[in-house]
Fold M23 family metallopeptidase.
Amino acid sequence: MASNRSVLDEAPYRSSGTGPGTATAYGVGFDAGAGARTTVGLGAEPDEPPVGKEAVWDEWNPTEESIAPLRGRHRVGKQRGGTMARSGAVLGVGVIAAVGAGGMASAKDRPTVPISMPDLAHVADEVKAQLPAAKDLPGIGSLMADDQGSSQTTATALTTSGTEAGEALRTRILRQAESQQTAADDDRRESEARAAAKAAADDAAKAAAKARDLAEQKKAEAAAKKKAAEAAAKKKAEAEKEAAAKAAAERRAQASTSTGFTLPVASYTLTAGFGQAGDMWSADHTGQDFAAPTGTPVKAVSGGTITQAGWAGSYGYRIVLKLDDGTEIWYCHLSSMVVTSGKVSSGETIGRVGATGNVTGPHLHLEVRPGGGSPIAPLSWLRDHGLNP
C-alpha cells in the first residue's frame, strides 16, 4: 500500500503566487528554510521576510486536533487568597486584553496573507485503486458470507416473529373487543333486569293499591248494608211495637166493651206504683201513675156519676167518679177537666193529662177507693175487672 506522505509530496500546490509549489507566506514568524515557525514572544515583533524575495513554505495539512479550539487555557482559577488574589486576577486579565488589542491592531495594519491547499481528489482515487476487494482479504470473505446467511436467517426470523407478533396483537384486539362486547351485553342485561324489576314492582304496587281500594269499597258497602239493615230492623221493630200497642188497645177496647170497664188512658208508661215510698209524698204512694204527654185524653173506667171536680191541693186538678157499686175513682194532676158533673159512660173522655199539683212531670195519678174509703192497688183492681194494664 502506498504511503499518503509519498503522494502528498508529489501533489501540486494551489497558490496565489506565480509558480507551482510556491505560495506567499501564511503569516509572520514562519521560516521557509528551516520548515518551522519562529517563536514570537509576548510583546515582540516578528522578523520581517527579506524584501523582494518570495518565501517558500512547507505544506500545511490541517487536522481536527490542530484546528480544534483550545478550551480553558486562559481561565482564571478561583482565588481564595482574599483581596490581593482578586486584584492579581484582575491585573492579569487586563494584561491579556491589552496584548490582544495590540496584536489585533498589528494584524489590521498588515496585508492579507493567501492560503494554499493541495488538490487531494486524485489521491483518493489512486488509493482506492491500489486497495484489494474486501471479499479477497483473508478471513473477511467468510465473515461476509456468514453475515449474508445470518442476515437471511435473521430476516426469516424477523418475518416469523413479526407474523407471530401480528397474530398476537390481532388475538389481543379480538379478546379486548369480545370483553368489551361481553361487558356491554352484561350492562344491557342488567339494565333490562332492573327495568323489569321496576316494572314488576310498579305493577305490584298498582295491584296492591287496587286491592286496597277494592277492600275499602267492599268494607264501605258492607258498612252501608249493615247500617241499612239496622235501620230497617229498627223501623220494623218500631212498626211491630206500634202494631202490638194498637192490637193491645183494640183488645182492651173489646174487653171494656164486653165487661163495661176500660183503661183510663190508651197510650202510657207505668211509673210510680201503689205503696212506693218517696220524698214526694207524706206517706207511701196511694195510687198508680200513668205517664203520658200533656193533653192525652183521660177516660172513665166505667159508667158512673162525677161527684167532685176542681182543685185539690197537692193533687192538682182532680175529678172524682163514683161507680154504681159505690167505688170512687180519683183522676189527679189533670191539665183540664172536660166533664165536671153528671152521668158518664164507660170510655167517655172526662179530662186530659197534665202536671198540676205536687209532680215532677206530666202523668195521670189514679186512685181506687172502694166505698169512698182507703185506697187500694189500682192495677190489681183493673185486672180483677178484666183489664191488662
